[in-house]
Amino acid sequence: MKAFKGLLWKDFKTSKVWFYGWIGIIFLIYIIGMVIGNFVNEPIIVQIFIIMIGVFHFAFLPGIVLSMLRLEGKTQLWLHSPYSGFILLLPKLIIAIIYSTASLLLVDLLGVITLAVFPEDSLFSYWPIKEGILFNLGVTVVGLYFSGWTIFLWTFYHSLSKFPSIKNIRWIFVAGFIIVYQSVVAFLMSIKWVEKILFNAFTVEVSSGVFLSIGSNEANAGFEPEMIQLPLLPFVFEGMIMIIVFIISCWLLDRKVEV
């Protein structure tokens, strides 16, 4: 446990500059939104900028993971580490999740401040607490999904360096793997009984989407009243795939990936 805490602290110290830089970018985009909103006398624009910042978090979590992996690749420290790939990779995911959560909470705070300052010029006619929570959870889950693939593809790419004959064309094998994987998934989805099980077996009712309407003097946003059936098994399937690729990533790293 002491060693794990040490790795967490190391990953925090080596990545905090990127996190602080990202926080600076958030404030910069927010200020730009404020300036444009005041210039055109449309405070709603500020909220649109906040939503845009939130959407950017789909890429932030895998981006911060990749930056930590690239740093490890430059130092080559884990080639001499006695710890398993799981112990080396897990702290990076935890730190990235902490950064993403803190960043999303900051965006939420900016949203609350904006709604409080401009209560009559809001995209929502109410405080969108539930929508904010669901959005944050969705962004985090999608970010973790892409982070899992980022870790796998990074370790797979660098594990190919053990073969000198293909070291300079490793990207072709990575691209080939992606194409093969997508082709296999597409083939499975084309099988009627597989499609029926995945998309019809277990479902829950959710809103069909969100709406956003902006007029000259008013704007409104929220969830569509029409309900649709959301299948759950595809998410379970993707979750299992993420666990598998993470385990494979740890196994590849245990073989001392060299960059």
Describe this structure in words.
The chain has helices spanning 2-40, 44-75, 85-117, 129-159, 170-190, 192-200, 233-254, and strands at 203-207, 210-214, 219-223, 227-231. The strands form two sheets. A two-stranded antiparallel ribbon has the order 1-4. Helix 2 packs parallel to helix 4 and helix 4 (129-159) runs parallel beside helix 7 (233-254). 72% of the residues lie in helices and 8% in strands. The protein is built from seven helices and four strands. By secondary structure, the chain is mainly α. The model has no long low-confidence stretch (mean pLDDT 81).
* SS class: mainly alpha
Summarize the main sheet. 2 strands, antiparallel
Rounded mean pLDDT is 81
Q: Order of strands side by side in the largest beta sheet?
A: 1-4
Strand content: 5-15%
* Shape category: globular
N-to-C terminal Cα separation, in Å?
A: 28 Å
Helicity, as a percent range: over 70%
Spans of at least 5 consecutive residues whose pLDDT stays below 50 are none
Number of helices: 7
Query: Which sequence of SSEs, written as H and E, runs from N to C?
Result: HHHHHHEEEEH
What Rg do the Cα atoms give?
22 Å
Could you give the count of β-strands? Answer: 4
